[in-house]
Amino acid sequence: xxxxxxxxxxxxxxxxxxxxxxxxxxxxxxxxxxxxxxxxxxxxxxxxxxxxxxxxxxxxxxxxxxxxxxxxxxxxxxxxxxxxxxxxxxxxxxxxxxxxxxxxxxxxxxxxxxxxxxxxxxxxxxxxxxxxxxxxxxxxxxxxxxxxxxxxxxxxxxxxxxxxxxxxxxxxxxxxxxxx
Length: 180
Prior knowledge:
Blueprint: H1 2-18, H2 24-27, H3 59-63, E1 73-75, H4 88-100, E2 106-111, H5 118-138, E3 146-152, H6 163-169, E4 171-176
């Protein structure tokens, strides 16, 4: 008996699948017109956007030759470790950068020309590196972000033995994380 009942239910289901739904005209339902002429699409007016100049931030600013942060050397007079006025804007920029980026670290390398004893030049290079470090800390950089070392006369920028070469070698170089 249950087999006959299952067969009857299955037959009714198959018969229902085979029938056609009534036409919309017969049910009174409205049919939406879908021809291209009947479809109206409203496009909102888009105002053109002019991009504003992007100011380089972060480490990219350190490599941009147009940015003051790409300059990394401070030069000194013979036998001196006081910072010249012409380098103060450079140090202000680096001090602000370090203050704004507390995870960035800097190595300041003090250098001297070849005149004087090795010991004297190491001491002078250290005084020069310490002078830059002190100025940067006054401008907002944290002491733990900076390390000052002296290279003395060991790494000259210019191998010459005249006033022009010596002037190039009396310097501090500022190197950021990843550059040393």
